[in-house]
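Action item from last week, closing it out:
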Amino acid sequence: MVPHVISGNTISAFVGGDLKTIDSSHPNFDTIKRRLREGGDVGDDLFDLGAALRKHLLYEDDLIRVGYDGLTYNDEPLHNYLTLKIIDLLGRGQPATPWINFLKRLQLNPDVGIKNDLFEWLEKGEMPITPDGYFLAYKKVGEDYLSFHDHKTLNHVGSTIFLPRDQCDPDRFRTCSAGLHFCSWSYLPFYTGRSGHVLVLKINPADVVAFPPDHEAKGRACRYTIIDEVPEDEAKHAFPEPVYSTYYDEDDDQQPFFDGYNKSEPHVGVFSRLKAWTKRLLN
């Protein structure tokens, strides 16, 4: 009989001279639990999450494996709102490439809290992701396109703004502090009133430094690219879908998410396309 302890949603057992511990997210949890209670044999193969996922594989690449009941990144199990989203999409036969790309970039963020919480926070703030795994957000700047925060940083469409990460405040409880600010449309009215210009930003999730734990839709990053300017009164309806292609996306072999999108077309501005897509989607 294998020495073991079953406690709620956790199993610990000595297998092959090693202590193995799993929780109910493991694909073989029920099988292992049943065999242990019946006094049957359990081997390393049952506890091996990678092997278990390969038997129920929905997706696999060099970094990520996705099964019906779990996801690993670089052979380490991940379990958060984003991974559940990816598993659900793939389990229903839906494409999940943008979310997988987002996850890969997000895992490069050094902040564990951001890795776990960013995607859910963005979804609640209605900030969409792009096919290459970035996300879109807003920023308001002065009439002279200078940042309201430092009155020095010039923000023009097409430019990338960078601030060393160690100069950005990572404290999520300080909502107005050092860093490159971004927000959702719902926060725009609180962004120094109606003055200034509203810009659309493309941000790598690896570059997010802080966002408030109470889901106030304003955050800080250490880098962003400005991809367009939008009228503030139209910003609310700019992103009716969770994924958008832009001219600033990295090239890949994926089909564009909208039939009207064509990189060979003249640059008419991201927001011009968003308005066209919005009109088509809402009609």
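Closing note: DSSP finds seven helices and 14 strands in the chain.
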